[in-house]
Design brief:
The chain is mostly helical. The protein contains 9 helices and 3 strands, in the order H-H-H-E-E-E-H-H-H-H-H-H. The protein has a 3-stranded antiparallel beta sheet. Strand 2 and strand 3 form a beta hairpin.
Length: about 230
């Protein structure tokens, strides 16, 4: 008959495993149960485990996350921590699908969208582009004086409108996509998505949703094998 592992060893195994492989879960516990901001929650380290709660230290303080009801033994730790992760994820309105990469516009639709949007930004970047005799006026407006004069005068307002609309789109994109799928704010991936999205608008939504759909299909495929 196997000898039960000492309590100290059980605790140490859970603590080491959480700190090594589940840093994201520790952050979720702090954000949901301790109501911490993401920046501080990301620094959390599980220090101790009791039957009645978790002790987690951050860069600024130490927090006790109570377990209610308490565990009967440390053998219940895995299931209880998994349940807490699920509850925190749902409570924070987050997705189980974590995005940690940037997707370039590679399909024909996405390439066309990116190039069209980029062209719009370039053309509307200066009123000189609409002036009679300019490359754009000659090749795209056929030097129509009335149209060229109108667009030359309207250019500042068109550009301002584009900035406002694309900024609003990116604010919504950050909340509905990046935050939901746990892309770290102000990180390289987060910045890449926002910069690309600011340029192309709807194309970034398409690419991000395609990436999420691919990750979801991969997760479901793995789950079906178990």
């Amino acid at each position: 008959m196997a000898t039960p592992r000492p309590l100290a060893d059980q605790k140490a195994a859970v603590i080491n495993h959480m700190n090594k492989d589940h840093q994201e879960s520790i952050s979720l516990y702090l954000r949901y149960y301790a109501k911490l901001a993401l920046r501080e929650a990301k620094t959390g380290v599980l220090e101790d485990l009791e039957l009645g709660g978790l002790w987690i230290r951050t860069s600024t303080d130490r927090y006790m996350i109570e377990l209610n009801p308490p565990m009967a033994s440390f053998a219940q730790a895995r299931n209880r921590l998994v349940d807490m992760d699920r509850e925190a994820t749902e409570g924070l309105g987050l997705s189980k699908i974590v995005v940690n990469t940037f997707s370039f516009p590679l399909t024909s639709r996405n390439i066309a969208t990116f190039l069209t949007a980029s062209f719009g930004w370039i053309v509307n970047s200066s009123p000189n582009n609409f002036r009679v005799g300019s490359f754009f006026a000659n090749h795209f407006l056929r030097s129509n004086v009335a149209v060229c004069n109108f667009l030359e005068k309207a250019q500042p307002y068109i550009l301002a409108f584009m900035v406002v609309v694309h900024s609003a789109e990116m604010a919504y994109f950050a909340r509905s996509r990046l935050d939901k799928h746990r892309v770290p704010s102000f990180g390289a991936v987060w910045m890449a998505w926002l910069i690309s999205g600011f340029i192309e608008g709807i194309g970034s939504f398409w690419r991000f949703d395609e990436l999420v759909a691919a990750k979801k299909a991969e997760m479901e495929k793995k789950a079906s094998k178990h």
